[in-house]
Amino acid sequence: xxxxxxxxxxxxxxxxxxxxxxxxxxxxxxxxxxxxxxxxxxxxxxxxxxxxxxxxxxxxxxxxxxxxxxxxxxxxxxxxxxxxxxxxxxxxxxxxxxxxxxxxxxxxxxxxxxxxxxxxxxxxxxxxxxxxxxxxxxxxxxxxxxxxxxxxxxxxxxxxxxxxxxxxxxxxxxxxxxxxxxxxxxxxxxxxxxxxxxxxxxxxxxxxxxxxxxxxxxxxxxxxxxxxxxxxxxxxxxxxxxxxxxxxxxxxxxxxxxxxxxxxxxxxxxxxxxxxxxxxxxxxxxxxxxxxxxxxxxxxxxxxxxxxxxxxxxxxxxxxxxxxxxxxxxxxxxxxxxxxxxxxxxxxxxxxxxxxxxxxxxxxxxxxxxxxxxxxxxxxxxxxxxxxxxxxxxxxxxxxxxxxx
Length: 405
Prior knowledge:
The chain is an alpha+beta fold. Helices cover 44% and strands 19% of the residues. The chain has two domains: 2-204, Cytochrome Bc1 Complex, Chain A, domain 1; 226-404, Cytochrome Bc1 Complex, Chain A, domain 1, CATH 3.30.830.10.
């Protein structure tokens, strides 16, 4: 890995991966839902949606799309709590174009008023989709349920319908100008790249932006413990969560293993009991999240209405006793599972660009997945048991259920 900090503050890394034809160009900025003030909820996500709507150099959305499609390129933009990323994956011969395109959509988006109007409709339909499909949206709703009382931050990243319906072009531009700072930005090239490519990026990513950079935000945990909603659904959906620590904690590696043991794969305790043994659910998966200041452990399941209450009881029983019953074999299997999953991603340029960019942007450190795996490998059974006992207190368990009307 080769890296440097440009004159405008942008952190630049080049990650060559031997044997790949693909190259990913990914830029991440410290604009995210966690930093939004109440009147700004949903604007990070809205800004991301406007990325491919046209630039001063490529004035129409179709100009952008055709350039992507004629090269067979993959492109994506994604909003999180703490950052927004924009990426293009293509082949080496298109590298100059890809770097220019990513720079253009970030720095030179023109955000036409008619496109803002259309995208309002798109985002409103997205919000409705998540509401109509709890399997997709309940995890985000639990985040809002746990942390939504905080004075700063939008913990359902898309925002609410009533706010999005009022968003105009000026709101988005003012928001971007307020928070866009090149000293809080990373650009990563990964895959079929080399050290000489540093000069290419440096020549193109030369602009300076000096918006506000938010470091830590105040977090308030909701004291409410239970939420029950009735919607037009055929089956029941449930989510259980407990407030936890953020990624600055040394316990985050142990927490990842605990998450796998409980609900992280098809041999995990909750999946095995709720789906495999009892046949109550189609899906059981983790919804745990961590950001800098805090986090939550969580699990979500789609359960037949007749068995919903029993499923909640079983999940609570399992998590309340797991600290005493986890064994060495489960821990080894969780470590092996995590190691295998990460190794599968090491041949993907987009995995490396996202990993390196987010670590450097948010944690101000350059590391590799292999280095973190070595730390995780050192986690002991005693540490996992202790963490489970600390986390799972009956009085801390939050519960959300969605029932049929």
